[in-house]
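Collaborator request, handled under Task 6.
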Amino acid sequence: MIQASGVSKHFGGIAALSGAEFHAAAGEVHALLGENGAGKSTFIQILAGALRADRGTIRVRGEDFAAANPDAAHRVGISAVFQELSLVPDLTVEQNIWFRREPLTALGTASGRKMRQATLALFERHGIPVARPDIEVRRLGLADRQVVEIAKALARDPSVLILDEATSALAPRETEWLLGLAGRLAASGMLVIYISHRLAEVRQVAKRLTVFRNGTTVAAHDTAAVSDGEIIAEMLGRRMERLYPDRTNTTTDRVALRIRDLTVGHRLRGASFDLREGEVLGVGGLQGHGQRELFHALFGVGRSRGEIALWGKPMTVRSPRQALTGRTGLALVPEDRRGQGLLLGKSVRENLTLSVIPRFSSFGLLDRRREKAMVEEMVGVLRIKAGSPEQAAGTLSGGNQQKVIFGKMLLTEARVLLLYDPTRGVDVGTKGEIFLLMRDLAAKGYAILFYSSDLPELVHVADRVAVMRNGRIATILEGDAISEENILRGAMVEDKRAAV
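Structure tokens returned to the collaborator:
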């Protein structure tokens, strides 16, 4: 179906792809793997018509292919679901799915009736688990928006479907649906190119895999013929000794954050817990049970009721600006890094320092040397891969974008950190760096509230895990009680004896 040879792409002096090779057949799910910055996203953007290659040849069904734009890629049957979504928030689900391709009436106007019928037929054909067709996308959570993006791609009846980290925002139920869908589409003769950092998913769904590193193809295998350790070594160019660092207890008796009866509408109902200095407190449970509302309420996004005390002092957080009050404040790594965490058109430098301009200015004048020193230190500490601090944040890989958000958070000097699914969509090497950073910060006296949709992360990184169910803290697990089984039991089973 696709034969790519010698594909290269440069951005200025940076080589995103350098002679990459990729060969995939119709009727298979083919995984494309590599750490962030390996060139995967650039390659699939070339296939999808969003970018043009500098050199190399691509053939689709044996015919030369060089799409000048996404419409040209669609005409040859290639549809892509990118990790970063492209929906219009103020349009409805069905309007987004058929955007620029709306069914028309005899007078040439958009037919709402035909659009509804086509949408419902699409949902039924693929078993799409999504909200009502007439609901505005801005009212949906990230997981539901991801499903709408997938539906939008399926509506074009492609012969090549590209899924770029499509499960990173999905709950387990939606993930199982998508993995099953990928298998069924491949069985029908379609090629599904599947990009994921979750090797368990790759093993479940992909027949073959190709590994990119530093813009070059380093390996191609039958999935069953290679171990996880070999795949990771090929991705990183080295063997990774371990993903999770030692979990040394650094918790003190000092309470950094105390919340009592925190409530947000009907989504968060009377949450209460203490987060101590030096502690990583995990937040678990099935998605949509109040985790997002908890983090947003603590950061001053939206209205909430209840009591919040920070380092022993009662406070009312009415806005993110108020939350970011130096060492006595809170800082957030948000769920949606591109939509909520970064200004994509601005440079790495500007994104890092925008929240802390008072630290290097006086009387309205900026001290550029001090700013430069702060930026260079953070780029070095976090090992942010960028051509220079002036490179636009939107051109970085997903993992490096996440590192910029961490740097921006740390420069605020807040000592209570709210990390909402911070490893979503990042490669295994960057995950290891993030986990090591979290434990290092805890050892330095930071207090960390850590939500993850990946249960093993909570089991191996958190000192305690608060499990949420129906907007409440159902139980808090400690020590040997922290396990995937107990987290799921707390999230799903009513237990009158559970600690609250």
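The cover message to the collaborator said: "The radius of gyration is 23 Å. The CA atoms of residues 153 and 424 lie 22 Å apart. Please let us know whether this matches your experimental observations."
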